[in-house]
Specification:
Layout (H helix, E strand, L loop, with lengths): L22 H22 L6 H27 L5 H22 L4 H26 L4
Helix pairs in contact: 1-2, 2-3, 3-4
Length: 138
């Protein structure tokens, strides 16, 4: 009989600390930083930087980073099930983020809602497909 290696789990053991270079930490920090700079820059309208711009950048950046980290941790804990809820969470985050950035650029509220909805639907479909197709191999 042939000897085969046992499958190795890619999941982190419970209670194991996250390293600062872990992608689950780095990606939300990078996304939050980029989002915060983008929001602050849009709200400036080409004028000088103010304290309000800096505060908006920090608040939105921290909020997006925290939501990305939280959704990622929750989604990793639900691996192999709840595809609809996991994809919906990422879709809502992406749609709300894009809609908010468009509203900062003096876009109409109705068009910001439609644009956020279109982005949310697209992200939902893509993430649902990714989770559903990856579950076949778990």
């Amino acid at each position: 009989m042939a000897q085969h290696a046992a499958p190795v789990s890619r999941r982190r053991p419970r209670g194991a600390a996250l390293a600062p270079t872990d992608p689950a930490v780095v990606l939300p920090v990078v996304a939050g930083t980029a989002y915060g700079f983008w929001a602050a820059n849009i709200q400036r309208y080409g004028e000088a930087v103010t304290g309000g711009n800096i505060a908006l950048g920090f608040v939105t950046g921290i909020l997006v980073a925290a939501l990305c980290f939280g959704i990622h941790q929750w989604s990793a804990a639900q691996a192999g099930r709840h595809f609809f809820a996991r994809a919906g969470a990422w879709g809502v985050l992406a749609g709300a983020s894009v809609g908010f950035l468009h509203s900062l650029a003096d876009g109409g509220i109705l068009w910001s809602c439609f644009l956020g909805g279109f982005v949310a639907a697209g992200v939902f479909v893509a993430v649902y497909y990714r989770y559903y197709s990856a579950s076949e191999y778990v």
